[in-house]
Design goal:
The chain has about 350 residues and is of the alpha+beta class. The protein is about 35% helix and about 25% strand. It is built from 12 helices and 14 strands. The two termini are about 25 Å apart.
Length: about 350
């Protein structure tokens, strides 16, 4: 499952004549302007001190060889065009349903709110998503943002924090760096990590289904083995596999992960799955996985890690919190939303 931030500052404004919109793809030249808007949003939410993203970091994401974020800017369709709003989004991977779109930010300038531009943005983003092979979209918002919540639900969005009880966790930068730089524990049996490939897709797919059964959510798995093989082959996602370090090596566990973008902090690592085979649980291998993932994240320029888990998964919750993870659904009240595939496609075709 995937986490996102939609930061909405929705407040009805006086009606004005509705201008026509044009969309364009943002570039590094827009970095300063958009970062100022992100800071304005954070100030409105009284979280300005949380914004550590710099203009240089933001611009770098547009010029990187491995660029993965999209910035969509809306302007009035006139000679002296005016800024209307922006959205930051990117493709991500769900081990239950495959490739999806992740909406990080959606912002409409105050004087243009109440004119249906939010829905226009959603329609444009879903069309882009389908062109990228994505058939659903996720984001998060605060439950006390009544206008945003009402808007999302009117589109057919589902609050999966309410319906499926998912909570969002993260490792702050200082904890992330500390884990990455900590000395490796000596555990028996010794294990070795390797990067998974499309050749591992059958085995990993079976483990994903097993994992979904443990959480009672196997009915939600629409991912196919062929989908998983394709995305591993394209290196859209990464799989880290742990095996015993011996001639007749045995499977210990795996983690699906990928980089993503947070408009407050910049590039982070997202941990989609972490699975330890039952016979190896309780021996410290979970910590070794966190260490290895943190090291990989640091090498890729990430400054933290995020994931979702169930609050009733007591063992996982204790493990994550013992390593400095913060439940931001608990502390900051973020709720996760998504557009189901049928709603997503319908929106794109409006």
């Amino acid at each position: 499952m995937i986490l996102i931030f939609v930061i909405s500052q929705c407040k009805p404004t006086a009606k004005m004549s509705k201008p026509n919109l044009k969309f364009r793809e943002g570039t590094e030249k827009d970095s300063r302007f958009i970062l100022n808007k992100v800071t304005d949003l954070a100030r409105f939410m009284d979280t300005e001190d949380m914004v550590t993203l710099t203009e240089e970091d933001f611009a770098k994401e547009f010029t990187s060889e491995n660029k993965f974020i999209n910035l969509l800017i809306a302007e009035t369709d006139e000679e002296d065009s005016k800024f209307v709003g922006y959205a930051i989004f990117f493709p991500f991977f769900s081990s239950y349903s495959g490739k999806r779109l992740y909406l990080e930010d959606l912002f409409i300038e105050e004087k243009y709110r109440g004119n249906g531009f939010g829905k226009t943005f959603f329609r444009e983003i879903t069309k882009i998503g389908i062109n990228k092979g994505c058939y659903s979209m996720e984001w998060t918002t605060l439950p006390d943002n009544d206008i945003a919540v009402g808007f999302y639900k009117s589109l057919g969005a589902i609050n999966k924090t309410e319906t499926e009880k998912w909570h969002a966790y993260y490792l702050p930068k200082d904890v992330f760096m500390k884990i990455a730089n900590s000395s490796t524990m000596s555990i028996t049996p010794k294990i070795k990590f390797r990067e998974g490939t499309e050749k591992d897709s059958t085995f990993i797919f079976i483990k994903i289904v097993d994992l979904s059964k443990v959480s009672g959510s196997d009915n939600l798995v629409t991912l196919t083995e062929k989908d998983l093989e394709k995305e591993l082959k394209n290196k859209f996602i990464n799989v880290l596999i742990a095996e015993t370090d011996e001639e007749d090596s045995k499977f210990v566990g795996f983690s699906l992960y990928f980089p993503f973008f947070n408009s407050f902090y910049g590039k982070r690592l997202y941990m989609e799955d972490l699975f330890i085979d039952e016979q190896y649980r309780g021996h410290g291998f979970g910590k070794l996985f966190l260490q290895e993932l943190s090291k990989i994240g640091v090498q890729r320029g990430c400054a933290g890690m995020e994931w979702l888990t169930h609050p009733e998964n007591n063992g996982a919750v204790r493990f994550y919190k013992s390593h400095g993870a913060i439940d931001k659904t608990e502390t900051e009240k973020w709720h996760a939303y998504y557009l189901p595939k049928d709603v997503f496609i319908k929106m794109a075709n409006l």
